[in-house]
């Protein structure tokens, strides 16, 4: 697989945004404290992430697919926690 400049920029952007999301996601998963999270916002965020993942898969964009697959896992967990641990 050959990566051009656009792919490298996409992978770096995907890495940066996904990694920046992880500390808060991990903290929320560890503490189960979702009091500071809006259910409406997180529901929309999770739906948007799911659509970006679908777009990444359908368009064949590896950076978009990887970033949103990882984010989707954590966003889904946090959304379930928000609903479960009100």
Helix content: over 70%
The count of strands amounts to 0
Order of helices and strands: HHH
Mean of residue pLDDT?
Answer: 90
Largest sheet: none
Total number of helical segments?
3
Backbone shape: elongated
What radius of gyration results from the CA coordinates?
Answer: 14 Å
Beta-strand residue fraction: under 5%
Distance between the termini: 46 Å
What does it look like?
This protein is mostly helical and 86 residues long. It has helices spanning 5-31, 39-59, 62-84. It starts with a helix and ends with a helix. The mean pLDDT is 90. The chain has 3 helices and no strands.
Keywords:
86 residues; 3 helices; mainly alpha
Q: How is the topology of this model organized?
A:
Elements: H1 5-31, H2 39-59, H3 62-84
Helix pairs in contact: 1-3, 2-3
Briefly, what is this?
This protein is mainly α. The chain has three helices and no strands. The chain is elongated, with a radius of gyration of 14 Å.
């Amino acid at each position: 697989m050959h990566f051009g400049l656009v792919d490298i920029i996409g992978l770096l952007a995907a890495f940066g945004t996904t990694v920046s999301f992880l500390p808060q996601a991990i903290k929320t998963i560890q503490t189960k404290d979702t009091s500071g999270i809006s259910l409406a916002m997180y529901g929309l965020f999770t739906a948007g992430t799911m659509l970006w993942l679908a777009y990444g898969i359908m368009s064949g964009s590896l950076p978009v697919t990887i970033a949103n697959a990882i984010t989707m896992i954590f966003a889904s967990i946090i959304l379930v926690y928000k609903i479960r641990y009100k």
